[in-house]
DNA sequence: CGCGGCGTTGATAAAGCTCAAACATAGTGG
DNA sequence: CCACTATGTTTGAGCTTTATCAACGCCGCG
């Protein structure tokens, strides 16, 4: 049973319960038993790249637990107006939040997606009888809320280069917590345009932001979907918003590089 | 409804359950019974304006349900660096989210605050036995998540005047759902500086944004804490991001004063 | 009465958006 | 296999908004 991919997984980190052992690690929130029970009320849905999974404002009859693929959860008030992507959902994420019975945002598949579709009614009745499921959803929602606040924090940044750095750090942590180790390269599974719509910027600004970070020696892009962090110290400072990439990073030779080896410093 | 102020209240709107009757209305999520049970494990805390309620990174031993007053929930990475206010919490809100046993953001009282302090341990044991409490927290978290996404959406706006309009609309809806009717004036209980820190702008920009909205005839400020919406249609368009206040309002003199939608479309 | 925080107003500079065109990369059908 | 189209990405030039920095008025408070 352990190696079968046929039961939904819900992934999150611990919230109030301190767990120093696996701090920062994602755990599966559902016991096998609970996952199996959920599987009995779920159906498997498949979506192709670009497919609409649900649309904001329509009646919310089901939530989806992503099994594989990448889903963009977004909001667009008027057709043709600005889009803001709220989250990139992947395996172990649950989507389909509703407000007064209607989906409060939209979701489309960014590539081929398989997901468990769980009707709300079944879920509700199941929740009333199964406390563990309840607590799992609670933990997942806390996780989501934190992620959303982090998103807001990224959006509050003024310079696009900083936003990008924070975005990459977010993906890095996510991947690290899923894999259990920090990968050499961070994988950016979405397009530049998607990044722009997540970071509230234009694709052009995203391109230039990456260029800025590369020129500053902070990171290196193998291609548009794989970046390596070269200057971890400078990167962290960027993420913490304490300095601006254009000016100070180059002049950071004063204090910075004591903790980690810098590959190349201050080439200007 | 009830006149006993001695039990905690949790306020939220409905999520998946459609309730066409009281759509958009806040409901108290706890039955009197549950509230009473919660009260037995809660203690009342009082804070004065400026007091710290908890600090990010410290051990999270309790959550707080606000009974009265205004609390700023915020994050500040480095002392002296940028602050982002995530939420203004008031009566019926719950604060104290944690990550791996530590508070993930900070909270201070914006004025005199009374709150129910509920130790995590008691809450957990209570949750395991009381399913209703569980579901109430779930509903509240969905509410919070939506609020956070809305915040992100506001932050994604480029022009400060639009941000302000969306912020006012947010407060208006909140007040309307609490009162059960749309008030004539929207109350802004926080300072300009707090708004700036919520909207990721500077106080100066906030001032100028309000000026812009007033000059455009969208709203009128009785004082710094009370605004009335004069042009509901224009206001709504601003909130939906379909129209730029600076551009169109300035060009209005050329166009002879007619309010024109001027939306952009991708047709070529 | 002086002090410090807040709010407003004014100049300047920087960063990003808009618009637009060149470029790259698929996917498609001949 | 190739043109051909559609989509995404990059680059460039001009314009707008806001951050920054500063000064000033206001108010409450010691």
From TrEMBL, chains A, B:
<dbReference type="InterPro" id="IPR014710">
    <property type="entry name" value="RmlC-like_jellyroll"/>
</dbReference>
<keyword id="KW-0804">Transcription</keyword>
<dbReference type="Pfam" id="PF00027">
    <property type="entry name" value="cNMP_binding"/>
</dbReference>
<dbReference type="Pfam" id="PF13545">
    <property type="entry name" value="HTH_Crp_2"/>
</dbReference>
<protein>
    <submittedName>
        <fullName>Crp/Fnr family transcriptional regulator</fullName>
    </submittedName>
</protein>
<dbReference type="InterPro" id="IPR018490">
    <property type="entry name" value="cNMP-bd_dom_sf"/>
</dbReference>
<feature type="domain" description="Cyclic nucleotide-binding">
    <location>
        <begin position="30"/>
        <end position="96"/>
    </location>
</feature>
<keyword id="KW-0805">Transcription regulation</keyword>
<feature type="region of interest" description="Disordered">
    <location>
        <begin position="244"/>
        <end position="268"/>
    </location>
</feature>
<dbReference type="InterPro" id="IPR000595">
    <property type="entry name" value="cNMP-bd_dom"/>
</dbReference>
<dbReference type="InterPro" id="IPR036390">
    <property type="entry name" value="WH_DNA-bd_sf"/>
</dbReference>
<dbReference type="InterPro" id="IPR050397">
    <property type="entry name" value="Env_Response_Regulators"/>
</dbReference>
<dbReference type="InterPro" id="IPR036388">
    <property type="entry name" value="WH-like_DNA-bd_sf"/>
</dbReference>
<feature type="domain" description="HTH crp-type">
    <location>
        <begin position="158"/>
        <end position="233"/>
    </location>
</feature>
<keyword id="KW-0238">DNA-binding</keyword>
<dbReference type="InterPro" id="IPR012318">
    <property type="entry name" value="HTH_CRP"/>
</dbReference>
């Amino acid at each position: 049973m352990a190696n079968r991919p046929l039961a939904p997984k819900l992934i999150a980190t611990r919230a109030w319960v301190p767990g120093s052992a696996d701090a920062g690690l994602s755990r599966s929130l559902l016991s096998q038993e609970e996952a199996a029970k959920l599987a009995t009320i779920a159906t498997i849905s498949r979506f192709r790249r670009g497919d609409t999974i649900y649309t904001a404002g329509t009646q919310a009859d089901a939530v989806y637990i992503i099994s594989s693929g990448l889903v963009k959860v977004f909001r667009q008030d008027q057709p043709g107006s600005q889009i803001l992507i709220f989250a990139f959902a992947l395996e172990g994420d649950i989507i389909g939040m509703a407000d007064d019975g209607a989906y409060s945002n939209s979701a489309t598949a960014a590539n081929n997606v398989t997901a468990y579709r769980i009707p709300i009614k079944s879920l509700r009745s199941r929740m009333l009888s199964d406390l563990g499921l309840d607590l799992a959803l609670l933990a997942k929602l806390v996780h989501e809320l934190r992620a959303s606040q982090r998103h807001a924090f990224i959006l509050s940044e003024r310079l696009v280069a900083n936003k990008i750095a924070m975005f990459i750090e977010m993906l890095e942590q996510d991947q690290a917590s899923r894999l259990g180790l920090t990968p050499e390269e961070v994988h950016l599974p979405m397009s530049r345009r998607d990044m722009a719509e997540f970071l509230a910027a234009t694709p052009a600004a995203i391109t230039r932001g990456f260029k800025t970070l590369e020129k500053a020696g902070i990171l290196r892009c193998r291609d548009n979907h794989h970046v390596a962090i070269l200057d971890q110290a400078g990167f962290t400072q960027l993420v913490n918003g304490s300095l601006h990439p254009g000016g100070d990073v180059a002049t950071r030779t004063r204090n910075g590089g004591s903790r980690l080896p810098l590959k190349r410093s201050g080439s200007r």
